[in-house]
Each structure stands twice: as structure tokens, then as C-alpha cells.
Specification:
It is a single chain. The protein contains two helices and no strands. The protein has 64 residues and is mainly α. The longest helix has 34 residues. It is rod-shaped.
Length: 64
């Protein structure tokens, strides 16, 4: 798993926890944390798909 994808997943998990804590405390700042969670989730998917495509390209290059 690419290192940047792992970092993005950690940020996603932490921002979800922060959003829950914010909403439990009655603060609407949790909306910002949810937006950050969505952004970091998309970044994690991007880095995972990019690594998968890179492995496929390397495998095709090695097979030729």
C-alpha cells in the first residue's frame, strides 16, 4: 500500500473522529471535519488506484 494512501486514510479516520466529537459538543465545526474526511478519502482512493495502474503498467512492460 502506498505511503501517501496510508497517510490519507489516517487523516480521514482522525477527521471523522474530530467531526463526531464536534457534533457531540454541539459545534457545527464538524461540517468542516466531514469535508476534510471526504477529501482525504478521495485522495486515498486516488493513490491506491494510481499504484495499481503503475503495477499493471510495470507488469505489461516486463512481459513484453
Amino acid at each position: 500500500m502506498p505511503r501517501l494512501a496510508v497517510y490519507a486514510l489516517v487523516v480521514c479516520a482522525l477527521s471523522v473522529v474530530a467531526a463526531v466529537v464536534s457534533f457531540v459538543q454541539g459545534s457545527f465545526l464538524g461540517v468542516v471535519w466531514l469535508l476534510l474526511a471526504g477529501l482525504s478519502s478521495n485522495m486515498a482512493w486516488y493513490y491506491l488506484r494510481r499504484a495499481k495502474a503503475q503495477r499493471a503498467a510495470d507488469g505489461a512492460r516486463a512481459a513484453s
